[in-house]
Each structure stands twice: as C-alpha cells, then as structure tokens.
Amino acid sequence: MNVTLPKPLKALRMKGYLMVFLIVSLLMNPLNVGLVAEEPGFERIFDGKTLQGWSGDPKLWSVQDGAITGVTTDEEPLEYNKFLIWDGEVENFHLRAKVRLIGKSNSGIQYRSKHLKNEGEYVVGGYQCDIHPKAENNGMLYHERGRGIVAKHGQQVIVDNAGEKWITGTTGPIQPIKLEEWNTFEIIAIGNKLVHKLNGNVCAEIIDHHQEGRLMKGVVALQVHRGPAMRVQMKNVELKRLPAGGMLSLKDAPILPDAKKAPGRIRRPRPTK
C-alpha cells in the first residue's frame, strides 16, 4: 500500500537522507583517512602524510613511513635542542603516540610548554616526557630549560611550594624496552597532577605544587637533541582534551614524613635573552 506523506514529513525525510549522505561522504573522503582516532574522544593531530599543523626546521623534519621523522647528522651537529611544534595548545589532556628512536642520543615529547622565540630557532621549554636510552630516564619527567629532572622512571614525586622534589612512592619496577622498536608513550595531565605511561603501564607520577615552576597550559612538541646523530619517529598521535580543574593542594596531596628528598639542586627557569 502506497502512503502519501504530507509535504513537511517529505522534507524532513529528505533532510535525513542528506545528512546520512554527508556523513558517509566525509568518512570515505581520503583526506580524512588517518584523522579518525581509534577511541571516542580522541582526535588525531598528525595526518600521517604531511606536517600540516606543525612548525619546525624543514632540514630536520619530514614525514617518512607515515610518521613524523626528525633526523640529525654528525656532519651538521645542532648547537642546541630543536623542536617540531604543534600549532595548538593543551591544558588538561590525554596524549598518546607510538615512538621509536635510533642513535646514541635522546628525544622527548614536550607538553604545556612555551615557544621561547628569543632563545633561538624552534626552541621550547617546559614539561617533557623523556625518550631516553637509559631505562631509568626513559619516560621520566624532565623540565626542559627549567628545573631539570623532576621524576625518574618508576618514581612518584611531589614537588613542594619551594620547588623541592620529594619521592613519595614507586610506580613499579623500571620497564626495559627496545627504543628502536615502536613503543606507546602516554601523557595524562589534570590540574597539577601529571602521569606518564609506557606501553600501558604508569612509569612516572607527579604532583607539582611549585607555582613558580609548574606549567598549566602550553604547546606540544617533539625534540631532536644536540649531540650524536639521531633519528626519532612518532606516529598515531592522538589527543583527548579533558575538563578543566583538578588542582590538588598540599592538603589534598601532602608530603608524608617518610618521603625521601630527591638529590640535586633546584634549577630555576632560564631568563629569556
């Protein structure tokens, strides 16, 4: 039996068909392939083909094998660490990416960092999830151009109001990996609590009460390090923005009497030129 729909219902049905057609077209468009993250809530911030949305020295950075690739050579050594900088900013977020590193050097994923334009070309300072050949340093929190090592792999650390670092516990045994193979690094930042994960396991956990030194928002970047020749690659870069808030006070996260003071001096952020 054929049923004739009123004109308003016909129009509504046609709009529904059009919406479905547009969604399917967007999903099938080759330009969007690689931008759909594996898990709801995450977005791809690297398209797998170009460095669109990122800024860096073209002599150092390219896309190879579907991955962001940074290469340095012994013939043209860097005077200082340089970075490929994402154009966006992060505050509270969950970032994850697959990374591999070849060479006797190290790299790192910067976050909540500052683009220090007065310090040189493509220079960044701030929080860094270290990518390092030493297992105890791999996945640690390093404050680039700031307070230095904040928490090593395997450590739970609270930084007090004066910037002193206190080891309050452990995240478990140090995880040895082969850096030349693909490994998943994750960073979760909520308020002043920072968590680094390596292949799904927490490797560093920090609560930063130091108002002078901590960072609450800023850029994301990937590092090539001065020194020996190196090659770092990063792919499947996914970002999930999290709700604002989450600040912990010393009352919420106190330093207990059995905490051990981390060795080393307090490093102050470098002044800009």
What's the short version?
The chain has one helix at about 5-30; strands at about 45, 55, 60-65, 65-70, 80-85, 95-100, 105-115, 125-130, 140-145, 150, 155-160, 165-170, 185-190, 195-200, 200-210, 220-225, 230-240, 260. The chain is mostly beta strands.
Largest sheet: 11 strands, mixed
Number of strands: 18
The CATH class name of the largest domain reads Mainly Beta
Class computed from helices, strands and strand pairing: mainly beta
Proper CATH architecture of the largest domain = Sandwich
Proportion of residues in extended strands:
35-45%
Whole-number tally of structural domains: 2
Helix content: under 10%
What do the pLDDT scores average to? Answer: 88
CATH fourth-tier homologous superfamily of the largest domain? Exo-inulinase, domain 1
The CATH topology label of the largest domain is Jelly Rolls
